[in-house]
């Protein structure tokens, strides 16, 4: 049996719900899947031309986003809560189609760029769009990865391929799309592809790897009771002593390496880990092969 939770619906229809810190998104409700028991949440996401998407996604990972409905700019925001109430009351909830880049096709992402090189952008779980564009860099145009958030005006941000991979928590399809764009780019084209080509080379030769698989395995072993975070850290030689001299593992070190806690001075955990550290945790901390924990 699934459970649902619907926020207070006493907000007057003339009052727009206060936006959450997550780029204007508003959490509208939640429930648990009948079979797996996974927690899911319903939220509204600003979209193109003042419209709003109502999305159903996994609460913990913000993945598996599904489109519940779309509100046009002239509709009252209270309709999002009404739609959520009806959706949660429907036994077939959760069967709507996945959110796609097409849902954000008309999003305003103009800037100092020409037409996007790639027709459809990549879309992360938070509704942020990533695409390769021709952007102005000094006196010359260049191919670069960019991102923009629908509903946040007309500007986009230029970022590296590594940034895209880090935000999407996966090497593909961003790496493959970059290689394809470079293969299709004439060497004598007036638009420079040098930076993009260098970014691919650095990504493929880097000893800094995504830590998602490492985190997944560590947390699985801890959840099963095979090991504790302290035991894994101690096996890796990361020790600490309390005032009485008792020795335990430096769990904060391990939590930072697997992306559970942010580094000092940072607000968000890093998605990256050095291959040497990954190998240390794999061999000494978990007793497995590093290749089992490396990203695909």
Please characterize this protein's 3D structure:
- It is a single chain.
- With 296 residues, the protein is α+β, with helices and mostly antiparallel strands.
- The chain has 8 helices and 13 strands.
- It has a 5-stranded antiparallel sheet, covered by helices on one side. A 4-stranded antiparallel sheet has the order 6-7-8-9. Strands 10-13 form a two-stranded antiparallel ribbon.
- α6 packs across α7 and α6 packs across α8.
- The N terminus is likely disordered.
Short structural description:
With 296 residues, this protein is an alpha+beta fold.
Radius of gyration from CA coordinates: 22 Å
From the N-terminal CA to the C-terminal CA, the straight-line distance is: 36 Å
Structural class: alpha+beta
| Helix percentage range | 25-40%
Quick check: average pLDDT?
82
Number of strands: 13
Question: Which characteristics define this entry?
Answer:
296 residues; alpha+beta; five-stranded antiparallel β-sheet; 8 helices; flat; disordered N terminus
SSE layout:
Layout lengths: L3 E2 L20 E7 L6 E8 L5 E7 L7 E6 L6 H12 L32 E2 L5 E9 L2 E9 L8 E3 L1 H8 L5 H10 L10 H12 L2 E3 L1 H13 L4 H7 L3 E3 L5 E3 L1 H7 L14 E3 H12 L10
Helix pairs in contact: 6-7, 6-8
């Amino acid at each position: 049996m699934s459970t649902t939770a619907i926020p207070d619906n006493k907000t007057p229809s003339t009052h727009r719900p206060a936006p959450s810190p997550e780029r204007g998104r508003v959490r509208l409700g939640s429930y648990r899947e009948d079979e797996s028991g996974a927690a899911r949440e319903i939220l509204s996401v600003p979209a193109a031309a003042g419209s709003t998407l109502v999305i159903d996604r996994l609460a913990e990972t913000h993945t598996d986003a599904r489109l519940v409905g779309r509100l046009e700019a002239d509709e009252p925001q209270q309709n999002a809560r009404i739609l959520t109430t009806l959706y949660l009351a429907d036994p077939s909830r959760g069967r709507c189609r996945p959110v796609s880049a097409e849902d954000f096709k008309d999003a305003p992402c103009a800037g100092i760029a020409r037409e996007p090189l790639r027709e459809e952008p990549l879309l992360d779980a938070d509704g942020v769009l990533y695409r390769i564009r021709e952007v102005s860099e000094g006196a010359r145009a260049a191919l670069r990865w960019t991102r923009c958030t629908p509903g946040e005006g007309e500007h986009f941000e230029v970022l590296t391929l590594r940034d895209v991979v880090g935000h999407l928590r996966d090497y593909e399809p961003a790496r493959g799309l970059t290689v394809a764009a470079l293969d299709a780019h004439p060497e004598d084209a007036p638009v420079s592809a040098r930076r993009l080509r260098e970014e691919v080379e650095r990504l493929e030769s880097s000893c800094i790897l995504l830590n998602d698989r490492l985190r997944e395995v560590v947390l699985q072993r801890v959840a099963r009771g095979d090991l504790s975070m302290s035991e894994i850290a101690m096996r890796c030689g990361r020790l600490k002593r309390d005032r009485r001299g008792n020795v335990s593992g430096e769990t904060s070190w391990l939590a930072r390496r697997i992306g559970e806690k942010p580094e000092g001075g940072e607000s968000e955990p890093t998605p990256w880990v050095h291959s040497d550290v990954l190998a240390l945790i794999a061999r000494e901390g978990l007793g497995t092969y590093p290749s089992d924990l490396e990203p695909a």
